[in-house]
Design a protein that fits this description.
Blueprint: E1 2-3, E2 24-28, E3 31-35, E4 39-44, E5 49-54, H1 59-80
Length: 91
């Protein structure tokens, strides 16, 4: 993980419908690009490597970046292998 030279990767939408959390992904060939407000990542499935960049070194933000990155990366890895990753929470 490295510190990004920016304060954000996505901006909160202003006006209209509020959003809980927005996370975008796209593939470029075999590589997965994923980004949200405070982090961005590149996952290379063929090279078994990933790079994660965080917009802040604040501990709470760092922990959230790691959690969200791992969820996205492992979900796509599971799908690539014919599986599925499910996230559940009790309210």
């Amino acid at each position: 993980m490295r510190h990004a030279d920016r304060t954000e990767f996505l901006k909160l939408r202003v006006g209209g419908v509020s959003e809980t959390y927005r996370l975008l992904t796209r593939f470029e060939g075999e590589d997965l690009l994923a980004w949200s407000y405070e982090w961005a990542a590149l996952v290379r499935f063929d090279g078994h490597a990933a790079t994660l960049a965080a917009a802040s070194s604040d501990r709470a933000i760092f922990d959230r970046c790691i959690e969200n990155f791992l969820r996205v990366a492992f979900a796509h890895l599971a799908l690539a292998r014919g599986g599925v990753l499910m996230h559940a929470a009790e309210s």
